[in-house]
Amino acid sequence: MTTRAGFVALIGEPNAGKSTLTNAMVGAKVSIVTHKVQTTRARIRGVAMEGEAQIVFVDTPGLFRPRRRLDRAMVAAAWGGAADADIIVLMVEAHRGVTEGVERILEGLADIGKGRTVALAINKIDRVRAETLLALAKDLNDRYPFAETFMISAEKGHGVADLRKWLAKEIPEGPWLYPEDQIADLPMRMIAAEMTREKLTLRLHQELPYQLTVETENWEERKDGSARIDQLVYVMRDGHKGIVLGHKGETIKAVSKAAREELEEFLGRKVHLFLQVKVRPNWLEEAERYSEMGLEFKDGNT
Ligand SMILES: Nc1nc2c(ncn2[C@@H]2O[C@H](COP(=O)(O)OP(=O)(O)OP(=O)(O)O)[C@@H](O)[C@H]2O)c(=O)[nH]1
Ligand SMILES: [Mg+2]
């Protein structure tokens, strides 16, 4: 049997469902998902097997008009993921259609997509009627020569298997890139930090999630088979620290519990998770924070 292997980059506007699709393809949660935009900050690789094909999905940060330094690093990571991939899948939200943001991505694809297979996945089809979908598919195909169009619901699983089968056929022949049982290419300490950031993002309101970051400071394997994990939550202001902690520490306690439970399930063993909140007014300008996130720190104005 000939094996196949390749990289498939999922790109799209923030909230399009890229991480949800990555997880659906892999069959496990490797990338965090929230209802808020700009959840994913760096490229997250998830590995899926389809017959003799190993498809490495590259989940990317959403593409939007960057303003701040972190925005720019995220958008650069997303386009970089597309440029390195064998196949690009553009995800568009069915109910939002061709937004200004989608138009801008199509402009970018005119360049990055050259010489590459680019497919379209219209996601969240559970939210619209069939007529709307067909019109949207036609509109998008008039604007860009997609190799194929898929109508999917990443969340409900509709169309996901068809897309995976097609991708398995399209990726190049070659030896597998990862051991057969590996599902993610991200250090465990980073996955653990992402889980905590997801729980924080789900609980906090407004802009706050954007202004915090989580890092795993220490990971200690214990003799009884459990792990002790210490994480730091960086926030920018004293007031933010208060919000993250919550009244009598309720918020951080709930976040810690939810993150620990998910980690225990992921690792299949007991975890002791300790979170500490640190005020760091300038963390968004610190190169080390970016490397911890898996992002490139770009010089220039904030
Ligand atoms: N109704 C519906 N919601 C979906 C579907 N797929 C994803 N979602 C929801 O859309 C929201 C965003 O999903 P994500 O997977 O985090 O989106 P993303 O593209 O990774 O977003 P960023 O990381 O911010 O760029 C979440 O609330 C998902 O549950 C779908 O097929 N149908
Ligand atoms: Mg995401």
Automatic annotation (TrEMBL):
Name the principal localization, coarsely classed: cytoplasm
Where does the chain cross the membrane? none
Q: How does it sit in the membrane?
A: Peripheral membrane protein
Q: Where is this region: G2?
A: 38-42
Q: Where is this region: G1?
A: 12-19
Region G5, residue ranges: 152-154
Q: Which PROSITE patterns match?
A: G_ERA, KH_TYPE_2
Please tell me where GTP binds in this chain: 12-19, 59-63, 123-126
Q: Where is this region: G3?
A: 59-62
- What terms describe the molecular function in GO for this protein? GTP binding; GTPase activity; ribosomal small subunit binding; small ribosomal subunit rRNA binding
- The residues covered by the KH type-2 domain are 204-281
**One GO CC term on file:** plasma membrane
Per the entry, what this protein does is: An essential GTPase that binds both GDP and GTP, with rapid nucleotide exchange. Plays a role in 16S rRNA processing and 30S ribosomal subunit biogenesis and possibly also in cell cycle regulation and energy metabolism.
Output the HAMAP family linked to this UniProt entry.
Answer: GTPase_Era
Which family is annotated?
Belongs to the TRAFAC class TrmE-Era-EngA-EngB-Septin-like GTPase superfamily. Era GTPase family.
Write the protein's name.
GTPase Era
Q: Which gene encodes it?
A: era
